[in-house]
Structures are given as structure tokens and as C-alpha cells.
Specification:
heterodimer; A: about 450 residues; alpha/beta; Anaerobic Ribonucleotide-triphosphate Reductase Large Chain; eleven-stranded mixed β-sheet; globular; B: about 90 residues; alpha+beta; Alpha-Beta Plaits; four-stranded antiparallel β-sheet; 3 helices; about 35% helix
Chain lengths: ~450, ~90
């Protein structure tokens, strides 16, 4: 028999604490769409996505209603496009982005991820063609997300790709300048990118994945924050326990939704991603969790330790609640998408350097950070290299999603609206790393990558 | 199959009558009713059996939502599995 206090606890999490399922993401393999004819390729891509994901939105809404739990996003991730477009030698790959965008609009999903290339060790001609087309692709589409993996712990860091991405981010910012350079909000540069991540903008359907799969991303920073507030003055061991228990409950809902979606769609269940994903809404912030733990403001000394505790406890609590955990799984710290981070960045409490330190202990990386519009491509490349090093050396995923806001300087604001939020333009060191970055080549894999 | 109906808001006369009338109309059997207080609000929790519900469960949810609007209360009708999975190992 259900206990009334348990029932009311769940209701309260949904009513007051923003408990939701952040995303149901359907991963679709497009390997069978490859063609040397661009028209044929685009048609196959469109047809396959619209047929596989035809019922995704309806099923998502049905589950939402049946269990009374909001499911914020329904999304699609696909095989990295550089792989399926490889036989094609005609025109820009941006046409494929157009087909992805139309398929996303037709199925009603708000983002589609996989306009991607995996170049951690080297770049094929097709990878290069895809990367070169990213600025155009992101400027002519609404829903397409792009990612490039430039490093892994096994392969080291491909600095040639890092150099290229610095300039691709700049070009994307310029091509979407009239909308606060929003194209860059849909472009992620990864180290150790997971193949089953359901969260955008970095989702793609890896080549080790099945034909079609359902991955679910949970959320719930507000629930964790409230649980800590209720706990009052307890020590950090107790605090970790409280977070674990809360993460367990949140993840169980994710597992239930993933199972139901997989049954109703007749598609295998992939993973539940245990991430605490904030939104700009008040009470849905990871920064506020750290402040609830006792920091005056996120970004002050102690932030890295608090985040490490949070990230670890979320994983420990969540891992028993789901049969398969994957994706990014940890706490996200995107600046523009988190009310507490926005406030901390605006007041000067949170710097880019502190954020970088925090990314060493959480998923994912330097995320949704607006930087001055005149930041050079070399500086952006150097930021990517720093972040990739943290990922490669620590054997974890890291990522960079920076928005060089064209025409704006430190202290100005950019606003993307919706889940992408808004952010103050943060200070970036203007000292030049150009000579280092331009050396190119590869930073070798760390010694502990040799584990055999 | 069971569902949990929660009614949250300011306590008024006839809440149980209206909610149970809606259940009866659609063949939903009430198994248990409990009352409590949730953050200063009146909260009624009803466990119901929806196996013999004579309309689709999602339509029944719509009907319950209408009752909620009529009486000015927040009514949520949710499949019991969300509570079971969250609170039981």
C-alpha cells in the first residue's frame, strides 16, 4: 500500500520543485542512408527520421499525461553526418542539415543532434567537409545541433582540429550575429564524447549503437536543492546521503519513463542519463544547490569541492535506480541556462577560470558561456585545448560551448530565449596563446591511457 | 491497474462528493481515501482502481481536470507506478 507522505512528496516535487524528465531522445542510425548522390542522401535521411520518430511526440505526451510528470523535450539524435555523407562529393553538406531540420519540424522535436564529426585522432576528407559547413548549416537551420569530438583519452588531442574549431566557432558567431550569435549555442566541441548522450547540443547516435534506441535524460536540481534546505545544519556525510536518496528517486522516474517509451514505441531502451540539468527558471538551478550547501555565491572558493560532492552523490544514488546508466551523467553547469550561474557571472563572483576548475569534477564543461565578440580564434582554440586536456587526463567527458557574442564586450548581455536562456559576456584573458596553438599536430595520449 | 488522484487546494464543502461522482460515472472504483495537509493546503489522496474504467485512462484524466477547474482545486490523476517506482526498491 502506498504511503500518503510518499505520494505527497512526489506531488510536491512536481508542483513546487520542478521535477521533470528533461528529454526523451530517440537515437536513429542513418548508416543505411549513405549515398554518393546528395539528393538521394537527403531524401533517405528525411524519410528515415520521419518514419522512425513519427510517434515520438505523441508517445511522449501520452506518458506525460499518464504519470503526471512533465517531459520537457522530445528529441532525435542521429549517426554523425560526416560518416554517412562520406561517399558524397557534391556541394555543401549544409543541404543535409536542411533535411535534418525539415525532418525535425515534421516530427515536432525541438532539436536534432548529430551534425557531427569524430576527429580525435585525424580528419577524413568528409570530416573536413562537414566541419567547414558547420557555420552555414547552423545559420540556415533552426533545430539542428552540431558537435565535434577533438580528443579522447586513448588518442590524445588533435590540435589541428582544435585550431580549426576556434575559427569555425568564430564564423558561426558571425553568421548568426543578428541573433546574439545563437548558432554557437548549438555547437559543442568535445573530448571523450559519449555515444549515447540524450542531451543537446552534444547528442549523436554513435556507431556502436543499435538501429534505433530510446535514451532518457532526467533532471531535478530544484528537488535536490529543496532536500538540502530541509536537512538544515547537517554535516557533509549526511548531505551526501540526502543527495543520493534524492537522486535515486529522480532516476527511478527516468527509468520508468524510459521503459514505458521503449515499450510503446517498440524501440529498445538504451540508457538513463543521470544529469542534474538546470533551466533558467527560478528554483531549477545547480548553482543554487551549491549555495544551499553553504556557499555565499557560486564561484567562491569551495565551489569545486561542493560540486564534486554533488556530482559524486548524484551518480551513486542514481546508478542503482536504473538498469543502464550512460550519457554524461553528472551535474551540468551551463551558465546561460542556470539562474544562479547567470547571477554569479553577472556579479563577478564566477569567472571563466573558476568554471574551468569546476569542470574537472562534473559533467560536462565550459558550457553556454558568452565571451567578448572580439575574442580571437586562437584564444578560443586555447580554451578548447585546456578543457580537452582536463577531459583527456582525467578520463572524463569535457566539452566547450562558447558564444563569442559579435559586437558585444565584457559586461554586455546576450539573450537566446527559452531553455537556452541569457548570459552576461564574461571576461577572457587577452594574452595570446597563438604561437602555442598554431604548432598544430597532436598532443599525445597520457601514459595512463595504456591500460592493456 | 490502479491510479492515485490527489486534490490540493483550499478546503471547501463537497470536494469528495464531486470527485467521487466523476469516478462513479466512469466506472472507477475508490479503494482508499486519506486527507492530509501539504504546505498549508488541504490535500486529499484517493487510490482508485481503473481496471473497469469505461473510457480511456487519458480521457478520464481530462474529465478529472475539468472537475478540478470547476471546484478551483489542483487535481492530478496519475498512474500508481510513478509512486511505486520512486518510493519502493
Amino acid at each position: 500500500m502506498l504511503n500518503i507522505s510518499d505520494i505527497l512528496e512526489t506531488i510536491n516535487m512536481i508542483r513546487e520543485e520542478h521535477l521533470d524528465i528533461r528529454t526523451i531522445t530517440m537515437g536513429i542510425s542513418l548508416l543505411d542512408c549513405a549515398s554518393d548522390d546528395m539528393d538521394k542522401l537527403c531524401n533517405r535521411v528525411y524519410d528515415k527520421i520521419t518514419s522512425k520518430a513519427e510517434r515520438l511526440l505523441a508517445v511522449g505526451e501520452e506518458i506525460e499525461k499518464q504519470y503526471g510528470i512533465p517531459i520537457i523535450n522530445k528529441r532525435v539524435s542521429v549517426t554523425p553526418i560526416s560518416l554517412i555523407a562520406a561517399p558524397c562529393r557534391q556541394g555543401s553538406y549544409a543541404r543535409i542539415a536542411g533535411a535534418l531540420d525539415r525532418a525535425a519540424a515534421e516530427t515536432g522535436v525541438n532539436f536534432i543532434g548529430g551534425y557531427s564529426a569524430l576527429v580525435h585522432k585525424g580528419m577524413t576528407d568528409s570530416d573536413r567537409a562537414l566541419i567547414d559547413s558547420i557555420p552555414e548549416a547552423l545559420s540556415i537551420t533552426q533545430r539542428v545541433c552540431s558537435s565535434v569530438n577533438v580528443a579522447t583519452t586513448k588518442a590524445g588531442i588533435n590540435m589541428d582540429a582544435v585550431i580549426l574549431m576556434g575559427s569555425i566557432i568564430r564564423q558561426t558567431a558571425e553568421l548568426t550575429a543578428e541573433n546574439d550569435s545563437v548558432g554557437c549555442a548549438k555547437l559543442v566541441v568535445f573530448a571523450n564524447a559519449p555515444e549515447d548522450n540524450p542531451f543537446m547540443a552534444g547528442a549523436f547516435h554513435g556507431i556502436g549503437e543499435a538501429e534505433c534506441v530510446i535514451n532518457v535524460g532526467v533532471s531535478g536540481p530544484g528537488v535536490v536543492s529543496s532536500a538540502i534546505a530541509r536537512a538544515g545544519d547537517c554535516d557533509l556525510s549526511e548531505l551526501a546521503d540526502i543527495i543520493k536518496k534524492t537522486a535515486f528517486k529522480i532516476t527511478r522516474v527516468g527509468q520508468l519513463v524510459a521503459y514505458e517509451a521503449s515499450q510503446k514505441l517498440g524501440v529498445p531502451f538504451g540508457i538513463v542519463d543521470l544529469s542534474l540539468a538546470p533551466t533558467p527558471a527560478v528554483g531549477d538551478s545547480v548553482a543554487r544547490i551549491l549555495e544551499e550547501m553553504g556557499l555565499e555565491q557560486c564561484g567562491c572558493h569551495g565551489s569545486t569541492a561542493a560540486l564534486a560532492l554533488l556530482n559524486d552523490a548524484v551518480k551513486k544514488g542514481g546508478v542503482m535506480a536504473s538498469s543502464h546508466v550512460g550519457g554524461l551523467s553528472g551535474a551540468f553547469i551551463p551558465v546561460s541556462e542556470d539562474a544562479g550561474m547567470i547571477a554569479a557571472a553577472a556579479s563577478g563572483a564566477l569567472s571563466l577560470e573558476k568554471l574551468e576548475a569546476m569542470t574537472a569534477v562534473c559533467s560536462v564543461g565550459l558550457d553556454m558561456i558568452a565571451i567578448p565578440g572580439d575574442t580571437s580564434a586562437e584564444v578560443i582554440s586555447a580554451i578548447i585545448a585546456d578543457e580537452a586536456s582536463i577531459g583527456v587526463v582525467n578520463g572524463k567527458t569535457t566539452a566547450v560551448r562558447l558564444i563569442p557574442a559579435v559586437g558585444k564586450k565584457e559586461g554586455d548581455r546576450v539573450s537566446f530565449g527559452g531553455l537556452l536562456g541569457e548570459a552576461p559576456v564574461m571576461r577572457v584573458s587577452t594574452l595570446s596563446p597563438a604561437a602555442f596553438v598554431k604548432r598544430g599536430g597532436r598532443i599525445p595520449a597520457p601514459i595512463h591511457s595504456l591500460r592493456n | 491497474m490502479k491510479a492515485v488522484i490527489t486534490v490540493i487546494g483550499k478546503d471547501t464543502v463537497g470536494i469528495i462528493a464531486k470527485v467521487s461522482a466523476c469516478c462513479a460515472r466512469y466506472g472507477v472504483n475508490i479503494l482508499d481515501i486519506t486527507q492530509s495537509v501539504l504546505q498549508d493546503y488541504f490535500a486529499m489522496v484517493m487510490l482508485v482502481d481503473i481496471s473497469d474504467c469505461n473510457i480511456d485512462f487519458s480521457l478520464f484524466i481530462d474529465e478529472m481536470n475539468k472537475v478540478g477547474q470547476e471546484i478551483g482545486m489542483d487535481i492530478r490523476t496519475m498512474h500508481e507506478d510513478i509512486f511505486n517506482s520512486m518510493h519502493r526498491i
